[in-house]
Amino acid sequence: MPDHDTLLARVRKLLAKAEDPAVTEAEAESYNTKAAELIARYGIDQALLAASGATADEITQIMIPLDNPYSRDKAGLLTNIAHPLRCRALLHRLGQSVTAVTVFGFRSDLERTELLYTSLLLQATTQLTRVRPENRVFAGESLAAYRRTWLHGFSGAVYERLRNSEDTAARTHTTAAGHRSAELVIQDRTAMVKQAYDEQYGDLRSAPPRRLSGSGYLDGHSAGERANLNTTGITGRRRALPVR
Length: 244
Description:
The protein is mostly helical and 244 residues long.
């Protein structure tokens, strides 16, 4: 299996090709999909190394602060990244806002979750400053309502892509004779995270589903399908642009 730096170098090359203005949209999507596959495979590799005792990968938690506007929708994006990567998310609320999210899971999966969230939030908020509910069915729709459903659609597409990449990586990973399959290792790690989370936070209730009225879901979902699943921000953090 490639080491951490080798894998990131391959991901960087794929993403650089995807960002080249000379390539077609189909070519860019192909490069981004391959990058997502490599990121998922890295997660499987780390899980197998930990299961074999070659590395340490403990269950822990990190807290990621959020800010307004759209803090609840940003929390939704973070949750939709965390869950496919076998992490759990706990929202910290203040009134109608979410001030932070605690993400709970294995350390290597938390690292992937935080890096993906940093990259995808930047992509989403950059696009969000430009989108408008033009020629929509709902007359008089507010910009805020449209943007909330746009973010909801974006998050949904990201969830689907990550879940598919993670499932495929576990299912197709070739394991040496005498070793447990990647799928069984992942099942065990998922169960371990759930048990540890329930022991610490099991008495908390789930929030009721939100009711959103805007028309931006399909536009956001389409943008999420094209989003660049870039974890190369490990060398430096970028702050998301403010949405006005």
